[in-house]
UniProtKB/TrEMBL annotation:
Protein name as it appears in the record: cAMP-binding domain of CRP or a regulatory subunit of cAMP-dependent protein kinases
One Pfam family, short name: cNMP_binding
Cyclic nucleotide-binding domain boundaries: 10-111
Keywords: Kinase, Transferase
Gene3D superfamilies the UniProt entry points to: Jelly Rolls
Length: 193
């Protein structure tokens, strides 16, 4: 379903009534690029539903910026580990571009999930979807080359390549921007053959 230029990017179908209920949660915030929503070491108190723009989850690995996940309109993002376990986050959430989000507190999420039929199932499907994605990311980092992971991005998540700056893509793939440039050139050359 398209709402104001975005589609629900969720792992399960939800009814229009549930969509409306969900979009009343939290409060709307406008973010500038580079706005930090959650700093490493802080305890996450909010989840963010993205209405426009893009956000990344990243980790500072001894001074090296490692992008872990990109979130686009129609997705819910948070540091699940920090929010669920109420422990300091090992990650940062940062706006990549100008964004409009709904900032939803953990207590409001829990309250609405118990009050609203279907909402708890929706949240559970998001959690399972995230776990599967992180498991795939972990295995891909071990089993696939950066070029194979880049080709998978082209195939599976082309919209990320349209909106996320290349230096963040390189960070996500675990390579330098120069290496990414070589891979992109090789992939383009292979397409032209």
């Amino acid at each position: 379903m398209v709402n104001g230029g975005w589609k629900w990017n969720v792992p399960m179908k939800i009814s229009p009534e549930l969509q409306k209920t969900f979009l009343t949660l939290g409060r709307e915030k406008t973010l500038s690029p580079k706005t930090t929503l959650l700093a490493e070491g802080d305890i996450s108190r909010h989840a963010y539903f993205i209405l426009s723009g893009s956000i990344r989850l990243w980790h500072n690995n001894d001074g090296a910026d490692t992008s872990v996940k990109f979130f686009l309109p129609g997705e819910l993002c948070a540091s699940l580990q920090s929010m669920h376990l109420e422990e300091p986050s090992r990650y940062e959430l940062e706006a990549i571009s100008p964004c409009i989000v709904r900032a939803i507190t953990k207590s409001e999420l829990h309250q609405k999930a118990t009050e609203t039929p279907g909402l708890n199932d929706y949240f559970n499907s998001i959690m399972v979807h995230c776990l599967v994605n992180y498991q795939d990311l972990f295995v891909d980092r071990i089993a696939k080359s950066p070029e194979e992971r880049y080709r998978a991005l082209i195939e599976d998540d082309p919209e990320i390549l349209e909106v996320v700056p290349l230096h963040y893509i390189a960070s996500y793939l675990g390579i330098t921007p120069v290496s990414l440039s070589r891979i992109r050139k090789k992939v383009r050359s292979a397409k032209q053959m």
